[in-house]
Write a structure and sequence with these properties.
0% strand; 2 domains
Length: 263
């Protein structure tokens, strides 16, 4: 076996250097770099909380774990296509919803703050304005969600592109996992919208300088979320470049026979 190229995406590799370790004793170490073979086994990837059981609780737990321990997330993350697609949707939809909420929180107070002193709207007119504002903000939320989806897909394909250029075996499924978990950065970015917008309409009226600080704070969160997303994608490229996944049962026998032929 040794230094030959891997057969497929299920060939067991050393996750540090890419050396083919399929068929070697699990108690041993990689002959190339010395990394314990047990640390490269697919069973070690137990999955993030969301991958183990999707729910609202596991969604928040996964987000917290990813932000606090990005390396730990990448080490236990597994390539479950369905779970990763749902996680990506949950994060990007939440981020889009936060952007829409931020715009709504900005617009609705402005409806009730008269531009001309003494000018007042009738309750019916104000209700219509609020309804139209809600519809407009819903459309903005959908557009923001689609925008985050596009950004995530571009980054996912980019990770795959650079992995191939460097001779890494970063599978499409694992690249999707990296992009899905990294999308929590868009949620961080989206939080800045309502936090700043809820305060700005009143600050514009009474404290313009404070409103500027709140806007800058929202923009800062947006930038922090973007940087986290990019940094996580880069770490995923480096940490999961030879990530292993369990061979499907239908292909298990073929993998065993191939290993025997090469030994």
């Amino acid at each position: 076996m040794g230094e030959r190229a891997w057969e497929d995406e299920y060939t067991l590799l050393c996750e540090r250097c890419g050396y083919v370790i399929e068929g070697l004793p699990h108690e041993g170490a990689c002959p190339e770099c010395g990394k314990a073979i047990a640390e490269s086994l697919p069973e070690r990837r137990v999955g993030t909380p969301w991958q183990r059981g999707p729910s609202m609780v596991s969604l928040f737990a996964t987000a917290w774990f990813t932000v606090r321990h990005p390396y730990g997330t990448l080490d236990v993350m597994r390539a479950g296509e369905a779970a990763n697609r749902r996680l990506r949707f949950a994060y990007n939809a939440s981020a889009g919803g936060l952007v829409g909420l931020g715009v709504l929180a900005w617009v609705v107070p402005m409806i009730f703050i008269p531009f001309v002193p003494g000018d007042k709207q009738s309750p019916e007119t104000a209700a219509w304005h609020v309804a139209f504002a809600g519809i407009a903000c819903l459309l903005i939320a959908v557009v923001a969600y689609l925008m985050f989806e596009v950004f995530t897909e571009i980054e996912t394909r980019g990770v795959r592109f650079f992995a191939a250029r460097r001779g890494f075996r970063l599978t499409p499924a694992m690249a999707q996992a990296v992009g899905a978990h990294g999308s929590v950065g868009w949620v961080i970015a989206g939080v800045g919208a309502p936090l700043s917008a809820l305060y700005v309409p009143f600050a514009l009226e009474y404290a313009p300088e404070e409103s500027i600080m709140m806007v800058l704070g929202g923009l800062g969160l947006g930038g922090a979320g973007f940087l986290f997303f990019e940094a996580f994608a880069y770490l995923g490229l480096r940490r999961c470049k030879f990530a292993n996944r369990g061979r499907p049962s239908g292909a298990a026998d073929a993998g065993v026979e191939a290993a025997r032929d090469e030994s």
